[in-house]
Write a structure and sequence with these properties.
Largest sheet of chain B: 5 strands, parallel
Oligomer: heterodimer
Order of helices and strands of chain A: HHHH
Structural class of chain A: mainly alpha
Radius of gyration of chain A: 11 Å
Number of helices of chain B: 17
Order of helices and strands of chain B: HHHEHEHEHEHEHHHHEHHEHEHEHEH
Helix content of chain A: 55-70%
Number of strands of chain A: 0
Largest interface: A-B, 16 and 17 residues
Structural class of chain B: alpha/beta
Distance between the termini of chain B: 17 Å
Strand content of chain B: 5-15%
Number of helices of chain A: 4
Radius of gyration of chain B: 23 Å
Chain lengths: 80, 436
């Protein structure tokens, strides 16, 4: 799966988790840009991403995520 | 797998659209079938995210005026670790069990203070019920004690802490305080010796759960047996240290839907929303084969074949339920004489005609027969559980009986999962819908 495709999938997941159909997501998007993105919805987001792509993050990997771009890269590495 | 809620239908693709429509209705003019559509939307194998969205609808209903068909419940949630993911899932699941729940959550690690201070915001919020959720790691039961004496003291302290929370809340809770059993740590400390050594974390948690059960037996609280749930899904699946270390979530978020349904089912049972009658199909449900075609000697029942034994097991389960007060009825497309003959003459039948309160064997459709059974017993159709191997019959019942008022319908009876689901259905008053 290409990074563009992964970003599209993650955008859909984020729109669902944060309950915002019009949410615009780029590689630079971070928790500061999305009002609904707090520590709880972050857990929901991680669980939804794990379910969608069929792998599990390590805690150190979750902690290293700074923005959506990092998440896309992580998914790309894990699913390669 | 239990974690996937296999007795519930797959969620509709239009889940979010239907939810939005219901949310708009909840705030304004509600159609007559509002409650039925809410229950129907919730009666699916929803994931944690979907349940949390339903929770908003549930809270709006609970905070508003009465809605026929849904009991409004203000539920306090107190205890150990991060509860914020659990409350919404419970509220979403409770709609499935006829309750619109509004969650009042205790602040992180403030359970004892919130419960014992009569002026705490939690106690002043007019709670109907409360749930006390505990974690072995925060009760100090995840590390071995020095000896049996210290183990006993630690178990005692853990029990007193839970009881202090429950008893403290008592005066401010209109109905019932629900108390969870505690899940033992996954990793054995002394291997199989854990069960022998009273100072092991496993043995201490077991001892605590025993005390909680004894307390519940005396009427101190209503137990929600989370430890049993964890053992059924498997500790390895239940436990997820990543989320404990990251956010003090007690167990894997993937288990939240199964957990929330157990809690919600208990809430439904406390509200008296229990199933009262098990309606049994006959051919390929109580025995293998078709009595009208195969005759008394041709049907499969009893020892000699795995299939025959499975049907005996189904009958034994039905009898167990009857011994616990569940009424049994028969609903079968058959000639009446043929239908009754195994009850009268087959040597391996455990069920006899005396066990069956209403016997409907005819060629009328099943929905009409279920209505007749409910009428004869003077209970609602929604107090029935319908066990039938034939998906077409279950679908017909779903079509004919309005959504939200349907009897629970279990799937094929010869298989073990149906046993598990059926037992659970009656044990906690749950709603069972076989996948079509």
């Amino acid at each position: 799966m290409s990074r563009d495709e992964i970003l599209r999938e993650i955008t859909e997941i984020m729109r669902d988790v944060f309950d915002e159909d019009d949410l615009e997501v780029s590689l630079e998007t971070s928790a500061e840009d999305v009002e609904e993105w707090d520590s709880l919805s972050h857990v929901r987001l991680i669980v939804a991403v794990e379910r969608k792509f069929g792998f599990k993050f390590k805690n150190s990997e979750i902690e290293a995520l700074k923005n959506v771009g990092d998440l896309v890269n992580m998914v790309a590495t894990k699913t390669a | 797998m239990l974690r996937d809620l296999p007795w519930l239908p797959t969620p509709t693709a239009a889940f979010r659209d239907e939810l939005r429509a219901l949310q708009a209705e909840a705030a304004g003019v509600r159609a007559d079938d509002f409650a039925q559509r809410v229950i129907s939307l919730a009666t699916a194998a929803l994931d944690e995210g979907q349940l949390s969205k339903l929770a908003k609808l549930s809270a709006a209903i609970a905070a508003g005026g009465p809605v026929p068909g849904l009991d409004r419940v203000k539920l306090g949630v107190l205890g150990d670790g991060t509860l914020s993911l659990l409350g919404p899932a419970i509220a979403g699941s409770a709609l499935r069990h006829g309750a619109a729940v509004q969650i009042f959550e205790s602040d992180y690690s403030q359970a004892v203070q919130d419960a014992t201070d009569p002026d705490s915001a939690l106690r002043r919020s007019g709670l109907d019920m409360a749930l006390v959720a505990s974690d072995a790691r925060l009760l100090g039961l995840d590390r071995a004690a020095v000896d049996a004496e210290e183990a006993q003291a630690r178990v005692g302290a853990a029990f007193e802490r839970i009881r202090m929370i429950a008893d403290g809340l008592g005066p401010s809770v209109r109905s019932t305080v629900l108390v969870q059993t505690v899940v033992a740590p996954l990793e054995p400390l002394f291997g199989s010796y854990d069960r022998v050594e009273p100072a092991s974390p496993f043995a201490m948690v077991e001892a605590l759960n025993r005390r909680l059960a004894d307390w519940a037996a005396q009427g101190g609280a209503v137990l929600v047996d989370v430890a049993r749930l964890a053992s059924v899904v498997g500790y390895e699946s239940w436990d997820d240290p990543r989320h404990w270390h990251a956010s003090k979530l007690s167990f894997s978020p993937e288990m939240i839907p199964a957990y929330a349904d157990v809690v919600a089912r208990t809430i439904g049972a406390v509200l008296g929303k229990t199933r009262k009658c098990l309606v049994l199909d006959l051919d390929n449900t109580l025995w293998g084969g078709v009595i009208g075609d195969d005759g008394l000697t041709g049907i499969q029942l009893g020892q000699g074949s795995a299939t025959g034994e499975a049907f005996v097991a189904i009958q034994r389960l039905a009898l167990e339920l009857r011994n616990r007060g569940v009424v049994l009825a028969v609903c079968s497309k058959n000639e009446e004489d043929a239908a009754r003959s195994p009850f009268r003459e087959h040597p391996d039948m455990l069920l006899t005609e005396d066990h069956i309160a209403v016997f409907q064997a005819n060629w009328t459709d099943k929905a009409a027969n279920l209505r007749a059974i409910a009428e004869a017993l003077n209970i609602g159709v929604d107090a029935l559980v319908f066990l039938d191997d034939n998906p077409a019959e279950r679908a017909q019942v779903r079509r004919e009986i309005p959504r939200g008022r349907r009897p629970g319908a279990a799937g094929r009876s010869g298989a073990l999962p149906a046993h598990v689901g059926l037992g659970r259905l009656f044990r906690d008053g749950g709603v069972l819908e076989g996948r079509p």
